[in-house]
Amino acid sequence: MSEANWYVVHTYSGYENKVKANIEKTIENRKLQDQILEVTVPLQDVVEMKNGSKKQVQKKMFPGYVLIHMIMNDDTWYVVRNTRGVTGFVGPGSKPVPLTEEEMRPLGIRNEEVVVDFKEGDVVTVIGGVWENTVGEIKKIDTHKQMVTINVDMFGRETPVEISFTEVKKMDF
């Protein structure tokens, strides 16, 4: 099996999030989760001055581009290349060139795997973010996104919520 690398895809400007959503939907429909691991639109926090007040907003680091962590083969190339809004991979001719580790570092995208001490069915406490102090049972663990899915009680209903590995702690009984 080939190794997964990060590739850059050129899109119509303003279509980055739509392309990301379309590729993620195709991954789900064609069951390519083990080949196309992550699709991201890199964002950066910027302070804007509007009407005399400072406002923190997120802006796209590379308008017109989407980053994809995938194993390059004919199927994945075809799926990405034929997604509505995609104009092509970045690279000479039709051959996509993966980003190097040095190129990835300033983007803040981590490649290292995180080893966790919990598994599906374990009860965890959220230790950060908007769900802080919420207790829930792990329903799903996504090692590529480094997220766990737990159910929380919202408006009297069990609702699944994705939370980062760094924001949960296993409950000790």
Helix content, binned percent? 10-25%
Q: Radius of gyration in whole Å, from Cα?
A: 19 Å
Helix/strand/pairing category: alpha+beta
Biggest beta sheet summary: 5 strands, antiparallel
Q: Quick one: CATH superfamily of the largest domain?
A: NusG, N-terminal domain
**Number of contiguous helices:** 3
CATH architecture classification name of the largest domain:
2-Layer Sandwich
What is the name of the CATH class of the largest domain?
Alpha Beta
Strand content: 35-45%
How many domains is the backbone divided into? 2
Low-confidence stretches: none
Instruction: Give the overall shape.
Output: globular
Search tags:
single chain; 173 residues; alpha+beta; Alpha-Beta Plaits; SH3 type barrels; 2 domains; five-stranded antiparallel β-sheet; four-stranded antiparallel β-sheet; 11 strands
Description:
- With 173 residues, the chain is an alpha+beta fold.
- It has two domains: 5-107, Alpha-Beta Plaits, CATH 3.30.70.940; 123-170, SH3 type barrels (Roll).
- Helices cover 16% and strands 40% of the residues.
- It is built from three helices and eleven strands.
- The chain has helices at residues 16-30, 74-81, 101-104; strands at 5-11, 36-40, 43-50, 53-60, 65-70, 86-89, 123-126, 135-142, 147-154, 157-164, 168-170.
- The chain has a five-stranded antiparallel sheet, with no helix packed on it.
- The longest helix has 15 residues, at 16-30.
- The protein starts with a strand and ends with a strand.
